[in-house]
Amino acid sequence: MNEAQAAAPGDGTPSSGTADTTVEQILGLLEGLGDLPVADHAGVYLDVHDRLSGELDPDRALRRAGAHGTA
Question: Would the pLDDT of 35 be above 90?
Fold first, then answer.
């Protein structure tokens, strides 16, 4: 068994190895990159970054809005 097979869940699909299904879903957005023109990749990366940032650091939105006295 190689590393890719070891990292795949029981159905054989690749996994990022996280235990968080929401993070897995967000990372799954990257799987469609091969079907998009290269010019559209940056938008997908930014969307994934924003979603992961919001999921992994929920207070980030509050800080960006200045809710904690910071900008």
Answer: yes
pTM of the model: 0.59
User: CA-based angle 49:50:51, to the nearest 5?
Assistant: 95
Nearest CA to 56 among 31, 30, 19?
Answer: 19
Cβ distance 27 to 16 under 8 Å?
Answer: yes
21-29: which pairs have CB atoms within 8 A and are 24 or more residues apart? 22/55, 23/52, 23/55, 23/56, 26/51, 26/52, 26/55, 27/52
Average pLDDT over residues 47-56: 92
**1-5, 14-18, 45-49 — most confident range:** 45-49
C-alpha 30, offset from chain centre: 8
